[in-house]
């Protein structure tokens, strides 16, 4: 996906009705020794980092349970859409663990330190509407009879992104992701570097031409 220039947006959904991702298989984990557990969690963390580093926008469609590593997967995405009835939480402390695949870092960046600490310390599960109210998800929608309301809303969101200039969207994502980790002056420098890469693109020229000619732009990602 990272290398496919035809990919504009990636939507993560589950094929299992009522479950986005239920997290690690604790029965499997119970059979591992300490070294195996450490290796397993490191691989999980690397996977989440790879998802977060995808150059195109990513959307998690949470139509059911997103618990532990399942919520960490959703947090690794750029945008999250949940059914109001979905249940999500970093429940690791209820099993003698702490989030180990990015949850302690991505959740506070998403909802703030105080709420993140409360959710992680308590292991509480919240529904989609509560998640929306605290900014954990971008949209919460009523579940439908097919059980894929969040996926349908995620597709609609993806279709809003698709017509926009692909390279500009990628540079916008890069500028946000890199800039949020540094002071604002350094962030401005990052934005400037991303903008400089966008200036010579054919899509920028097409956007200006389309505006002058009062027609929809035809972006090609170049």
UniProtKB/TrEMBL annotation:
GO terms for cellular component: mitochondrion. The keyword Chaperone does not apply. InterPro entries: ClpP/crotonase-like_dom_sf (IPR029045), Enoyl-CoA_hyd/isom_CS (IPR018376), Enoyl-CoA_hydra/iso (IPR001753), Enoyl-CoA_hydra_C (IPR014748). Gene3D superfamilies: 2-enoyl-CoA Hydratase, Chain A, domain 1, Lyase 2-enoyl-coa Hydratase, Chain A, domain 2. Keywords: Lyase. GO terms for molecular function: enoyl-CoA hydratase activity. GO terms for biological process: fatty acid beta-oxidation. Belongs to the enoyl-CoA hydratase/isomerase family. This is Enoyl-CoA hydratase domain-containing protein 2, mitochondrial.
